[in-house]
Every structure is written in C-alpha cells, then in structure tokens.
Amino acid sequence: NKPAFKNLIVNGLVLAQDGKKMSKRLKNYPPPSNVINAYGADALRLYLINSPVVRAEPLRFKESGVHDVIKDVFLPWYNAFRFFKMSVDRSGGFVPDASLVYASDNEMDQWLMAALQGLIKGVRDEMDAYRLYNMA
To answer: DSSP for 47-72?
Structure first.
C-alpha cells in the first residue's frame, strides 16, 4: 500500500473584494479576461503567487493589487532593462562570457557570483520543500 501522491499543494479560496464567495449571479468580481487584457497574465500570475492563497489562506481579490504588481514590479524591471539596453547600444554591443566573471579578481564580480549562487540554492531549497510562497 502506497499513498496516491507524494506531495500535495493546497490553495486557499479566492474571494471577491467584499470577502464573499465570487458569484456570477452577484457579479461581484471583474471578468478574468478583462483583468488579463488590461494587465497581462504575468501580472495576474505574480499577484496570485505572492498572495495568501498560496499558503492555503483566503484572498480577497482586488484588481488594484494586479495593477500594483505592474507598478511596483514590472515597470521597475522594464526600466532597468531599458537602461541596460541603452548602455549596450551606446557601447557597441554586449557579449556575455561567464568565464570572465568566474576568473575575475574583482571583488564586486566575486560578490555578485556568490549572491547568485546563494539565490540559486535558496530557490532550489524552497521549491524542493514546496514553499512556493517564498519564491515571489
């Protein structure tokens, strides 16, 4: 006799903004297609994975929360990317070469590589333990 599954992930309930169960009859939630069309699936996905629903707790869905993900996460990432791209375009190009970083004596390069390795280990440990809520 073996269990039917090795691991189990349980999600909480996604409730309407007023705390009641989402209902077509009451129309107390925005249509999902409208939210995705307005903000994108990635913003909705990040909003949900960074919410109490991932810890099996209820979530009062707020469209403004998805908007906040755009404002607080995606726009800063995009602006950093645009700055990087502008710098690359000015310098004539960028060809990443990890061997240069690993061989570097520069303390900043070494610190960045150590921080990256720590991040990779942390993500693997949390994912192996099914603690998805620590990933966002």
So the answer is: HHHTSGGGGT--EE--HHHHHHHIII
